[in-house]
Write a structure and sequence with these properties.
The structure holds two protein chains of two kinds. By secondary structure, chain A is mostly helical. In chain A, 75% of the residues lie in helices and 3% in strands. Chain B is elongated. Classes of the chains: A mainly alpha, B alpha/beta. Chain A binds chain B through residues 4, 7, 9-10, 12-13, 16-17, 118-119, 122, 126-133, 136, 138, 145-147, 150, 219-221, 223-226, 229, 260-262, 264-265, 268-270, 272-273, and chain B through 43-46, 48-52, 181, 184, 210-213, 215-222, 224-225, 228, 240-241, 244-245, 248, 251-254, 268, 270, 273-276, 279.
Amino acid sequence: MIDTLLSGQLLFAALVTGSLYALIALGLNLVYGTMRMLNVAHGDVVMLGAYAAFWAFTLMGLSPLLAGPVVALMGAGLGVLLYRGVFRRLLAGVTPSTAGKIEGNSLLLFFGLSILMQNIAALAFTPNNRAYAALGEVYRIGGVAMTGNRLAALLVAGGCSIAAALFLSRSVAGLAMRAVIERREAASIVGVDVDRVQGLSFAVGFGSAALAGVLMSMLEQFSPFSGFPFTIAGFIVIILGGLGNVTGGLLAALLLGVIEVYGVALTSANLRSVLLYGTFVAALLIFPNGLIARRVMAR
Amino acid sequence: MFRSDSSRRGVVKAIAAAVLALAVTTAQAQADKPLRIGFSMARTGMLANATPSQLNTYELWREQVNAKGGMNVGGTKRKVEFVIYDDQSKPEQAVRIYEKLITDDKVDLLLPPWGTPFHIAIAPVLEKYKFPVVGNTAASVALRQVKPGYIWFTTSAIPDRIGTELTAMLKAQNVKSVAVLSNVLPFTKEIKNFVEPELKKAGIDIKVSTEYPPDVKDMTAVLTQIKQANVDAVLALAYPGDSVLYAKQAKELGLNVPFQFVAIGPSDAFFPKAVGAPSADGVVTIAHWSPRPEWKGSQAFYDSYVKKFGEDPDYLNSALAWMSLEILEAAVAKNGLDKEKIRATIASDTFETINGKVKFDGVQNAITPTAFVQYQKGKLQIVWPASIATGKYEAKKGW
């Protein structure tokens, strides 16, 4: 038992799960952070990304690793399109007194989008289960068995999540984004182009979701209706990590991955959901602003 | 003002034209008198991914029947038309739909929806309106609680019989120890509850017995435990989603147990695509059908399905759907649309199907044996019981 717990095998599993959670939560967090809009269609973008990778693989024999960047760009394009076409208008007239209304309206809009995406996917692709086998070779590295696709998912998802955290803390555009997340009005007063930042959030948010879908498609089967659980998983991560707090989200995602794998190893697979949601509720009670409460958020 | 008025007039015109077109088509339809067959299917919602193998089979059947000039209704051939509603994966919705199909749409015949809960849910409606339906994709011991009368269940994959047959098969392969991991959803949980006492009775050591929730995302911990237990057989009582997860992670961890039983999923064409055909080879799963020369029409069904949909039919659900259609077809050919006579025929006759003879005893199929199939060189072969086997069981050689 002890050697199982200390073996790299469980750590690898926890990191794969955690990094995918992190990538899914990243986009949700940016859109919420910069615009206070909960994208309930986020998981459906993941689903569409999975389909894109599936078709690229089955029709063109394109490796998901090559399809990944293209699908991510397409996702980003969809995000920008939606922002320009729909959400910019909604956000244009925001004043502090109407802010609450925006949240409600955007939720309805996203909800409608979610239903649209699911049903368009069902019409276009049929509700069949889809899956394909790519990068299925097993590598043994230091006694740990790793399937190529899981290793790839870990590297890409982990890499992108860390890159996003660095982008937010190091680059000018990232700092502008953080400024909008933390103090929207002040940011606009000091000259941050809020409109651009919001568009960028949509691009990164949708692009990262589509990329997560590509990675997920190598690991699981999916159908037009498998998006919603990803939205839920994303919500849990960003609430646990602090809404709008990207670094907090990263840590929360890793924590959930660890609970998912080690929690099950220590107790029973049956308790998986109890452990996950138990941690979630406990964390909310003890740290109502997320694991890493930012001073600015606790205004 | 003028513009808005004209566009309003345009809309009115369009509606009038649509209504007229509709009236014309209805009039034509009544002249041709197609046979209207209704059913609900989960086209959206969490179960939608499970239904295409059944719906495809219905579509294939309609196409073939119409190509032959229509369905034989007591001697006259009538073209078949489907009235389909989406039950959104909700059994309560299916109840309303079947009531509507009978009382409002006044369909001539009904086909069943997908899945056990849906079959059980619509049974009282069928009883109320005395409308016979030959069920297909439902399997549970709970079906025996359904009052016999207007619904019949075609499958022999009932969990208690799976329990005894699987144990007998394991015994025949000289299996001494097993690991059981089960999804907590009803069908697999039911199998677990029936198979474990049988295994104990047979003296087979259950070294690991564990359950997991449907939303499981990682099985590393459980599979590591099973690998260490060093068993002769793994019974992965999984649903389609986790059957893929199981296979992929068993491969990663090198869980090279010779007897690998995976309950639901492998009978569907997506499984070998998801895990890779070499990995699927050797996996044993639940199904009691395979193309077999002794079963008339079985090869033709397989060939036409593959031709139309470009993939294998589900050896369990597609075959069951086709069997139920064959039984209904025979009963209607004999009796026309008289519901009571159809009921009496289904309840008492013996039917020739692509799965051999079928005769109902109460609500259950009394002839078809409970069976298991195994992937061999990319094709599913019946490997148990010997009486209907199309291949010989082979130990799984790694993933």
